[in-house]
């Protein structure tokens, strides 16, 4: 497993729902965004011509709310893999008080970019994120 990958950002008005806290759908978008950034920070252009990832399953525990202008730290790392699937973990921390906002896990499926069929996680792929 590569080191934990982190990004920081600020909650903006477009992230809020009617209750004036971050909408749950936004967290899923952020999970997808950081997963992509993590993969792309280690993968080559050649690798990205061969494969792509699609989410099969998300589990999110909402532990606290985040609000407009909160500075957040989001982390992701890879976990177990088997066959065509790879687990990815996430957490978001509010920087001002170190409060954990979400803890989450996704299962991502590797696809062959030409056929869009599932592809086994092979040594070449493992070497990108291990």
Task: Report on the architecture of this protein.
With 130 residues, the protein is an alpha+beta fold. It has a single domain, classed as Hotdog Thioesterase (Thiol Ester Dehydrase, Chain A, Roll), CATH 3.10.129. The chain is 25% helix and 42% strand. It has three helices and five strands; from the N terminus they run βααββββα. It has a five-stranded antiparallel beta sheet with strand order 1-3-4-5-2. The model has no long low-confidence stretch (mean pLDDT 95).
Any idea how many domains?
1
CATH architecture descriptor name = Roll
Radius of gyration: 16 Å
Kindly report the average pLDDT value: 95
- Would you identify the CATH H-level superfamily? Hotdog Thioesterase
Provide the spatial order of strands within the biggest beta sheet: 1-3-4-5-2
The CATH class is Alpha Beta
Shape type: elongated
The quaternary structure here is single chain
Distance between the termini: 4 Å
The CATH topology comes to: Thiol Ester Dehydrase, Chain A
The DSSP helix count reads 3
Low-confidence spans? none
In a few lines, what is going on in this structure?
This protein has helices at residues 24-42, 45-50, 123-129, and strands at residues 5-10, 51-62, 71-82, 85-94, 99-112.
Give me the secondary-structure topology:
Blueprint: E1 5-10, H1 24-42, H2 45-50, E2 51-62, E3 71-82, E4 85-94, E5 99-112, H3 123-129
Antiparallel strand pairs: 1-3, 2-5, 3-4, 4-5
